[in-house]
Amino acid sequence: MAEWATLPRDILVLIAEHIDFFEDFINFCVVCKSWQSVTSILGKSRILPPRFPWVMLTDIAEKNYPKVTGDVYPADMLVEEVKKNEYIEGMHNRRFFSISTSKTYEFELPEATRRKCLGVCYGWLLTIGYDLQINLLHPFTRLQIGMPSLLSFKSFENLDDYDEDFNPQDVFDFFVKKAVMSSNPRNTSNEDCIVLAIYGECRVLAFARPGDKVWTDINVPSNVYTDVVYYKGKFYAVDCHGVVVVCDINDGNGPIATPIARIPDGFHVLNYKYLVESSGFLLLVIRCCRGVYFGDKEDVDRPYHYTTGFSILRLEECYGDRSSHEYPYKMTQVDSLEDNTLFVGYNASISLPSSKCVKANCIYFSDDNAEPYSTQPYGGGHDTGIFEVESGSITLHYASKFMSHLTPPIWFI
Question: Which residue range or ranges hold the F-box domain (predicted)?
Answer without folding.
Answer: 6-39
